[in-house]
């Protein structure tokens, strides 16, 4: 039986590793139920200059190192979610300021109930709707539905928005749905990128329908205001957010940077751990390495030196490894900086190196391209995780394109 051995990246610990492993297993089972996905959780056990003129950095050479490429229309949606992840009520606040002339309603008027009151009732009753509960449970946010609804009902931004007179375009249900989903994502222990952009957007659609809305776009005045605010957040306010959250982020970064330093100093222990996991598999192996896990897997395969269970060096390779897939990996950059433990810059890949596919996302600032520095033996595959920079590095496992790449590699692995 063919085995995919999942080697995680820097700073990854439980439960994040198990969550990512589950996503990989689900994706493989959907297309290749005959393939096993086995863990390689080394983190729990062990816890210069651009020599090629930036060739490993996506788009750097094409731009001459002179700034970002032309904006992509898809970036507007990504910027919106970057702001919503930080402030789930941002759109509602902007609606209250710009929507329908920002004219407050003028008190009791006989006749049908105001749409704002109906929307308030709709939010209150979301957790009683089977379709909504099932949709939230499907993306792993079911326990947060009631909390999110309570938070949105009590948010001053929402209260101001529902008393704005009018909303002739019917945008408010969708803005409220996005606020609910963004709030839940901000409260979960999972990284935002672990819920795919597709699943996130479908959840917004489900809640929008439940709230009586069917609009897919918002008024131009609100769109323009939010576009400006999102760009301002990405360019300026993001630094203010970093300062405000420096303490909790510093706590999370200890494992992230600590793993990197430990690997550079004691990397042989990590490589030995991976080698033992490979030897334990009964058949052909595909090494799937994320981030630092991709560096460790590459170094193991490229060094030509293996470690036995006692940590003693012995010559040889791992012939059962038929392919390497690196995802969001820094191996190409370290090679260009002449900082890879296994290969000095300019030496290229050793003979007999297995097939190597390198997956990257331009918004993942920890991912790099390999073919420009290692040569044509490496296949670079670009994917779009549809997540902002802050979430892109952990979002590959919910991307259908990534699982398609994995499927293609598995189809070319020799059966045992």
What would a concise description of this structure say?
The chain is an alpha/beta fold. 50% of the residues lie in helices and 10% in strands. It is elongated, with a radius of gyration of 24 Å.
Please bin the fraction of helical residues.
40-55%
Distance between the termini: 6 Å
What kind of sheet is the major sheet? 6 strands, parallel
Q: Count every beta strand, where a strand is a DSSP E run of 2 or more residues.
A: 8
Written overview of the protein:
The chain is an alpha/beta fold. The chain has helices spanning 16-31, 42-46, 74-86, 90-98, 115-124, 130-138, 145-154, 156-162, 172-187, 197-210, 220-244, 246-279, 292-303, 331-336, 371-374, 389-392, 400-411; strands spanning 3-7, 36-40, 285-290, 305-307, 313-315, 321-327, 355-360, 378-382. Residues 100-112 and 232-254 have low confidence and may be disordered. A six-stranded parallel sheet has the order 2-1-3-6-7-8, sandwiched between helices. The chain has a two-stranded antiparallel ribbon with strand order 4-5. The chain is elongated and about 75 Å long.
């Amino acid at each position: 039986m063919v085995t995919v051995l999942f080697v995680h990246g820097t700073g990854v610990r439980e439960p994040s590793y198990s969550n990512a492993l589950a996503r990989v297993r689900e994706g493989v089972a959907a297309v290749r139920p005959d393939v096993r996905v086995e863990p390689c959780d080394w983190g729990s056990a062990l816890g210069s200059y651009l020599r090629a003129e930036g060739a490993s950095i996506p788009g750097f050479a094409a731009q001459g190192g002179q700034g970002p490429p032309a904006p992509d229309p898809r970036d507007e949606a990504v910027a919106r979610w970057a702001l919503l992840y930080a402030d789930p009520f941002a759109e509602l606040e902007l609606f209250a300021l710009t929507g329908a002339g920002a004219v407050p309603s003028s008190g009791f008027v006989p006749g049908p109930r105001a749409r704002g009151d109906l929307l308030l009732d709709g939010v209150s009753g979301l957790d009683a709707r089977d379709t909504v509960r099932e949709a939230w449970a499907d993306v792993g946010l079911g326990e947060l539905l009631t909390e999110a609804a309570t938070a949105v009902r009590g948010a001053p931004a929402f209260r101001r928005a529902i008393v704005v007179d009018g909303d002739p375009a019917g945008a408010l249900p969708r803005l409220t749905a996005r606020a609910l989903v963004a709030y839940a994502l901000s409260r979960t222990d999972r990284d935002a990128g672990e819920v795919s952009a597709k699943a996130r957007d479908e959840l917004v659609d489900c809640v929008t329908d439940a709230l009586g809305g069917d609009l897919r776009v918002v008024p131009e005045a609100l769109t323009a205001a939010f576009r400006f605010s999102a760009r301002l957040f990405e360019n300026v306010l993001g630094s203010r957010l970093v300062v405000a959250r420096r303490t909790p982020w510093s706590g999370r970064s200890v494992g992230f940077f600590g793993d990197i330093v430990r690997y550079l100093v004691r990397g042989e222990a990590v490589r030995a751990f991976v080698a033992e996991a490979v030897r334990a598999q009964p058949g052909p192996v595909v090494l799937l390495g994320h981030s630092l896990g991709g560096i460790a897997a590459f170094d193991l395969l490229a060094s030509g030196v293996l470690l036995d269970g006692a940590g003693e060096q012995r010559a040889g390779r791992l012939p059962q490894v038929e392919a390497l897939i690196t995802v969001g990996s820094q191996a190409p950059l370290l090679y260009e900086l002449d900082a890879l433990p296994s290969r000095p810059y300019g030496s290229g890949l050793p003979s007999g190196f297995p097939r190597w596919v390198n997956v990257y996302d331009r918004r993942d600032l920890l991912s790099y391209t390999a073919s420009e520095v290692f040569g044509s033996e490496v296949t670079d595959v670009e994917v779009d995780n549809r997540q902002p920079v802050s979430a892109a590095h952990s979002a590959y496992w919910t991307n259908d394109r990534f699982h398609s790449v994995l499927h293609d590699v598995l189809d070319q692995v020799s059966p045992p």
